[in-house]
Structures are given as structure tokens and as C-alpha cells.
Design the sequence.
């Protein structure tokens, strides 16, 4: 009996999600300006500091174990917030990249393809980084690795975005 | 119990109407040559129409016994379930069409999800609620419920993944996913309820809701197929001023390069 009701609950949850997605897809608008702002607001310097393995080693050597675990958990949470925001910006950039792919200007279309691909890669890296950071929160004594792929991907996305930014907004959006 | 005539009329309408609409859908898919892009979906639509004709003829024209009808229904249901898996595979391929990276990563992730859901489906079949009757059609309904759970999970994963990664759906693929999502989630809920509540009134009511959900699903497919396509370039809100202040991005690039070299 209980299993049946659990299944019914799950099915109606799934149905609600499907209906929600359908409604949201009709009202969704990509705010290019907001996405770009979000991208700019990310302090890569701070993120890099938070996940720096040398910094972690320094803290491990100079703090009592209990304090170190507390600080490490706080740092990991902060880094997760950065990764989460970077992921959100990457999602918006992916939409913009895909929209640009349909431009009649081949240069814009090519930049769009590159932007979308970089944004997808950045998104996947943010997921990987978030999972790793969550592991660090659960197991703070485990020595963490640095996160160069995320930083590297961020840079590549910024480069592509820069190339895309050479075109006027009108040429990007009206083609 | 519901008044017989009212119930029969409504059930007949809900049984016939979606299949008439499926005929329209097949015609439009054929005329627009969309069967090339979605061959499995096209096959599924044709199969559902053929299945309806066969079952309708058996039920209304030949008037066969309910036991024989249940046999025919169950066998056709199995093939329908298999085709639905094909349709899900087709929409997932369409979703990841433009990114080589996602083609590999997301499909691998989906395979993992499918494996997990399959295990859950088998466990559900083993510890299935409801009648422990060893009748063959009870077994088929257990398979149907397990498959509905797997399909529901796969479709939700696709929706989550697209939303999470910023993937844009093609209009028809999105419509197919939504319609199928409604059908399989309703199927999952009602198959679980059907296993528990075996009363005639309950079964009749669930029958109405199941056929009604299929009508909703086909209407969604028709709606997404016939609605005018939105220009993908017009979805963005036009910003004020420049897209990116150049010097800011250059500063960012310089800073990032500096950090990467450290």
C-alpha cells in the first residue's frame, strides 16, 4: 500500500515538474545584460584563493586541527557559492551562444558555437568542482587538489565572450 | 457506479479522439518530412494508430471476449513501451545534437541514470504492490509500471539536464518530451493505484483519466507541431549599450592569465 502511494506521489511530482517546465519555457527570456554582469561579478581571484592547495597547506600547518576543519568547511562553502554562480552565468551564456549560432553572419554564428561549447564545458566543470567541494565539506581532513580546469575554462569562456562582444548587440540579436 | 451511457460515451470519445488527432499528426509529420528527423516518433504515432484500429475492431466490431481483448491489449502495450524508449532516445539525441562535448558526457550520464532506474524498476517489479496473482497480464502491468518509472525518470533527467546546462530544445522535441512526460507520469500513478484498488468504479474512473491524459499528450504534440516557430535569435532581451565592455574583459583575461601562470 505504502509503495503504491509513494509511486503516486512521485508520479504527480514528475507531472508537476513537466507542467512547470512547459509553463516556464513559454515565459523564459534570456537577459544578456544580466548574464554578462553575472559573469563580470565573479571574483576569480577570490575563488582561486579559496581553492588554492598551498593556501590550504598553510592553514593546515598553522591552525589547530579543529579550527582548520571549521575554516576549511567555510572556505569550501564560499567556493561552492562561486562555482554555483559561475554555473548560472555559464547557463545563460550557453543560451546566448546557441541563439548566436543561428545568426546569418557566419562570424557571429562561429563565435556563438564556440561560446556555447565553452559555456557547456564551464557548466560541467562547475558541477565537478561543486561535488569535489562538497566532499571537502564532508571530509575536511582529506587533502584537496587545486581546481585548474574550472579557472582555465572560465578564461576560455571570457575570451570567446570578448570575441562575441566585438559585434554590436543588434547584429547579434537581430540576425 | 457511473451512469453506463454517460461513462461509455465519454470513454469512447476519449478513446477515439486522440487517435484521430494522431492521424492528423502523422499527416503533418509526413508532409513536413519530419519523419526523417524523428523516425522513431513517427513509427510510434503510426503504431498507436494501428493498435487503436486493431483493438477497436476487436472490441466493437468483432465483439471478442474480455479475456481475449486483454490478451491483445497487453501484447500491443509491450511493443508500445519499447517504442517509447526509442522516442526518448531520439529526443535525447536531438537535444545534444549541437555539442560534441555534451553528446559524450550527457549521454554517458543518462546511461547511468537509465541503469539506476532499471534496477529500481526491477526491484519494484519484485516487491510489486497489489495482487499477487500469477496471471500473465498482471505481470505485463508490472512491466508497464516499471517501464513507466524508468521512462519518467529519463524524461525528467533530460529536462533537468537541459535546464542545468542551458541547452536549447528544438520546438517539436520539447513538445514530444512534454507530452510523453505527461503520459508516462499519469501511467505510473494510475498503474500503481490500479494494483491497489480493484473495484469496478475505481477501474472505470482510472480508465477515463488514463485515456484523457493521452488526449492531452496528443494535443500537446499537435500544438507544438503546428504553432509557429520562434526565431531563436529573438529570445534574448536586447541590452542597453555594448554587450561587453572590451577593456573590462581584457583586464579579466590579463588577470586570469596571471593567475594561471602563478
Sequence:
Amino acid at each position: 500500500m505504502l509503495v503504491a502511494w509513494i509511486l503516486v506521489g512521485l508520479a504527480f511530482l514528475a507531472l508537476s515538474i513537466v507542467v512547470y517546465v512547459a509553463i516556464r519555457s513559454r515565459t523564459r527570456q534570456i537577459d544578456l545584460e544580466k548574464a554578462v554582469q553575472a559573469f563580470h561579478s565573479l571574483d576569480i581571484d577570490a575563488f582561486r584563493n579559496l581553492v588554492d592547495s598551498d593556501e590550504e597547506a598553510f592553514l593546515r600547518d598553522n591552525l589547530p586541527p579543529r579550527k582548520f576543519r571549521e575554516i576549511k568547511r567555510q572556505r569550501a562553502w564560499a567556493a561552492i557559492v562561486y562555482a554555483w554562480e559561475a554555473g548560472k552565468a555559464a547557463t545563460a551564456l550557453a543560451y546566448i551562444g546557441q541563439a548566436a549560432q543561428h545568426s546569418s553572419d557566419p562570424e557571429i554564428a562561429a563565435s556563438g558555437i564556440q561560446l556555447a561549447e565553452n559555456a557547456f564545458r564551464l557548466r560541467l566543470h562547475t558541477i565537478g568542482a561543486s561535488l569535489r567541494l562538497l566532499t571537502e565539506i564532508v571530509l575536511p581532513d582529506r587533502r584537496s587538489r587545486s581546481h585548474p580546469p574550472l579557472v582555465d575554462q572560465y578564461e576560455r569562456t571570457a575570451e570567446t565572450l570578448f570575441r562575441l562582444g566585438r559585434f554590436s548587440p543588434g547584429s547579434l540579436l537581430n540576425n | 457506479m457511473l451512469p453506463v451511457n454517460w461513462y461509455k460515451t465519454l470513454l469512447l470519445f476519449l478513446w477515439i479522439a486522440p487517435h484521430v488527432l494522431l492521424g492528423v499528426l502523422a499527416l503533418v509529420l509526413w508532409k513536413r518530412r519530419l519523419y526523417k528527423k524523428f523516425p522513431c516518433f513517427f513509427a510510434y504515432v503510426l503504431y498507436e494508430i494501428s493498435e487503436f484500429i486493431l483493438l477497436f475492431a476487436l472490441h466493437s466490431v468483432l465483439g471478442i471476449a474480455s479475456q481475449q481483448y486483454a490478451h491483445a491489449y497487453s501484447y500491443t502495450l509491450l511493443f508500445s513501451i519499447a517504442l517509447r524508449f526509442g522516442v526518448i532516445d531520439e529526443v535525447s539525441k536531438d537535444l545534444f545534437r549541437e555539442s560534441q562535448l555534451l553528446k559524450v558526457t550527457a549521454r554517458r550520464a543518462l546511461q547511468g541514470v537509465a541503469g539506476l532506474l532499471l534496477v529500481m524498476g526491477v526491484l519494484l517489479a519484485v516487491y510489486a504492490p497489489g495482487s499477487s496473482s500469477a496471471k500473465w497480464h498482471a505481470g505485463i502491468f508490472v512491466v508497464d509500471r516499471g517501464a513507466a518509472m524508468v521512462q519518467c525518470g529519463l524524461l525528467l533527467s533530460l529536462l533537468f539536464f537541459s535546464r542545468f546546462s542551458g541547452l536549447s530544445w528544438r520546438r517539436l522535441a520539447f513538445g514530444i518530451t512534454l507530452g510523453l512526460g505527461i503520459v508516462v507520469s499519469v501511467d505510473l500513478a494510475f498503474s500503481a493505484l490500479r494494483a491497489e484498488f480493484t473495484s469496478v468504479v475505481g477501474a472505470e474512473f482510472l480508465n477515463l483519466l488514463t485515456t484523457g491524459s493521452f488526449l492531452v499528450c496528443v494535443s500537446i504534440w499537435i500544438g507544438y507541431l503546428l504553432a509557429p516557430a520562434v526565431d531563436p535569435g529573438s529570445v534574448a532581451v536586447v541590452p542597453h549599450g555594448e554587450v561587453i565592455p572590451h577593456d573590462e574583459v581584457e583586464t579579466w583575461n590579463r588577470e586570469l592569465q596571471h593567475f594561471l601562470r602563478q
About this structure: Chain A touches chain B through 71 residues (CB under 8 Å). The two ends of chain A are 57 Å apart (CA to CA). The CA atoms of residues 136 and 142 of chain A lie 7 Å apart.
